[in-house]
Amino acid sequence: IEYQDRYSQASTYSQLGLLSESLKDFEQAQLHHLEDLRICVEFNDQRRMTFTLGNLNRVYSGTQEEQLLSAVAEILDSTPEDVRQIFANLSEDE
């Protein structure tokens, strides 16, 4: 992050999100994973985006915060219902 390497920041935010999850700090986990998702969209990295959406789905499953659906929808230029369906599909694939 310090070196302004935007693409590499995605990995850092992902790791921070996972760490926050392990500490049960779901608010911070959500913030970090959302930033990771923004970078994935910015660089059109579909593979990483799927991984990041899985992380966000896990946070959503633990919190059931509707605001998370809205935040993801905004980043994906979608609707909360579309995000709910994406999360459902990801859960089926597990």
In total, how many beta strands? 0
Q: Counting H and I runs of at least 4 residues, what is the number of helices?
A: 5
Distance between the termini: 31 Å
The helix/strand series, from N terminus to C terminus, equals: HHHHH
Mass-distribution shape: globular
Query: Rounded to an integer, what's the Rg over CA atoms?
Result: 12 Å
User: Low-confidence segments, ≥5 residues, pLDDT <50?
Assistant: none
> What structural class should be given to the helix and strand makeup?
mainly alpha
Question: How helical, in percent, are the residues?
Answer: over 70%
Q: Biggest β-sheet, characterized?
A: none
Strand percentage: under 5%
Q: Roughly what is the average pLDDT, rounded to an integer? A: 95
Please provide a written account of the structure.
- The chain is mainly α and 94 residues long.
- Helices cover 82% and strands 0% of the residues.
- The chain has helices spanning 6-22, 26-42, 46-63, 66-76, 80-93.
- Helix 2 (26-42) packs antiparallel against helix 3 (46-63) and helix 2 runs parallel beside helix 4 (66-76).
- The termini are far apart.
- The relative contact order is 0.13.
- The mean pLDDT is 95.
Brief summary of the model shown:
The protein is mostly helical.
Spell out the blueprint of helices and strands:
Elements: H1 6-22, H2 26-42, H3 46-63, H4 66-76, H5 80-93
Helix pairs in contact: 1-2, 2-3, 2-4, 3-5, 4-5
